[in-house]
Specification:
Blueprint lengths: L1 E2 L4 H8 L12 H5 L7 E7 L5 H18 L4 E7 L4 H13 L4 E4 L8 H9 L4 E4 L9 E5 L1 H16 L7 E5 L6 H14 L4 E6 L6 H15 L4 E6 L2 H13 L15 H8 L6 E4 L1 H16 L3 H7 L2 E4 L6 E6 L1 E4 L5 H5 L6 H4 L5 H6 L5
Parallel strand pairs: 2-3, 2-4, 4-5, 5-6, 6-12, 7-8, 7-9
Antiparallel strand pairs: 1-11, 10-13, 11-12
């Protein structure tokens, strides 16, 4: 993916769409384009259930925002592919056959989904790539600055290793090769780690599966030696859990710093307990609301609203200058949990600090 416009403007608009003159604004687009203000059907295709955020946050947030924007008349038809690109293609086909008004797709396989995107275009149904940049003639793309995600992870790991880190061995656990975000996370992380650490082993992880990451980490331990692994770059929290399990099974009592992404509840508990060093929090609300707003604007044919939301442009391997919204990301450590995910209402201190983590939470200053 090639980004062609800076991120700042769209991020600010995502934080306050009304302030940016998008929804509820006066002017010709608001006054002269009343079409489809009421009933509409938004198709939502999600890739898997292993990443907790998709069903816990993204799905209900998109439903909520579509309902708000349509006075309760808009419907979201949702399906989850559970890691199967073939199943997602079938789900895509059903949405096209049912003549939904717009499709939001978080692709299992960005390349494989291109033929379905083309079929939707032929049927006159706009497609918005959500979280992952799908190939084919997508109308827009909503995600985070994924190269920045990798940079934040890599920087956090290098800082955790401290002085002399260039001599310390690091294992890198990348995501699924079929996910275009994987290459961006990798590029960002390597920009911070190459020359700063000794990258002893790197692995791709089929379908982002934690059990695959655990198996790969076990290979790394046998090859490098557990005592020689100073840190682990893990591209997301699910895989971080697999990495930590492999280290535990190898008898490692003092865990090296391990990165993550997605601010999963299990990861936040591991961070409080000192088992995982950090995660990357990507505001689910900003991304989900932005996608819902772009979808509704596209169905209503309100180009001014749509363009105000999609102020950036990116390239996929098949298409250039795709209208894009990228929303901000932030690193979360033990010291910043309260100021990030708790403050934003993603999880409460009570949810994070169960009885098993009460002592660690108290030490970290997290109290209910």
């Amino acid at each position: 993916m090639r980004r062609t416009v800076p991120v700042v403007t769209a991020a600010l608009c995502a934080l306050s769409l009304t302030a940016c003159g998008v929804f509820g604004a006066d002017g010709p687009d608001g006054d002269d384009a009343p079409a489809r203000d009421g009933e509409m059907t938004v198709g939502l295709l999600l890739p898997d259930k292993d990443t907790a955020r998709f069903e816990k946050f993204d799905h209900p947030l998109i439903e909520k925002r579509v309902s708000e924007l349509t006075g309760g008349k808009g419907e979201v038809v949702h399906a989850n592919a559970e890691g199967s690109s073939a199943r997602q293609s079938e789900q895509f086909g059903r949405l096209i056959a049912d003549e939904v008004d717009v499709i939001l797709v978080n692709a299992v396989d960005a390349e494989a989904v291109a033929s379905d995107v083309r079929k939707a275009e032929e049927a006159g149904i706009p497609v918005i790539a959500y979280d992952r940049l799908a190939q084919g003639p997508v109308d827009a793309y909503v995600s985070h600055d994924n190269e920045l995600v990798g940079e934040v992870q890599g920087r956090a790991l290098a800082e955790a290793l401290g002085a002399g880190s260039e001599k310390r061995k690091v294992v890198m656990m990348h995501g699924a090769p079929a996910d275009p975000n994987t290459a961006l996370f990798k590029e960002g992380a390597l920009s911070e780690l190459e020359g700063e650490v000794d990258i002893a082993a790197q692995y791709d992880t089929e379908k982002w599966l934690p059990e695959v990451a655990e198996a790969n980490m076990s290979k790394a331990i046998r090859s490098i030696g557990a005592e020689n692994i100073a840190g682990v770059y893990s591209a997301n929290d699910g895989m971080a859990g697999g990495v930590i399990e492999a280290l535990r099974k190898a008898g490692v009592s003092e865990l090296p710093p391990v990165t993550g992404q997605d601010a999963d509840l299990a990861a936040l508990r591991r961070i409080v307990a000192g088992e995982q060093h950090m995660t990357v929090y990507k505001s689910f609300r900003l991304e989900a609301y932005g996608a819902a707003e772009m979808a509704v604007a596209r169905v209503r044919e309100r180009d001014i609203e749509f363009d105000a939301l999609a102020r950036e442009r990116v390239d996929s391997p098949t298409h250039k200058n795709i209208p894009t919204m990228l929303v901000p990301v932030v690193a979360v450590t033990k010291d910043t949990i309260e100021d990030t995910v708790v403050q934003d209402g993603v999880y409460s201190v009570k949810e994070i600090c169960t009885a098993a983590y009460a002592q660690a939470c108290a030490a970290a200053g997290l109290t209910t």
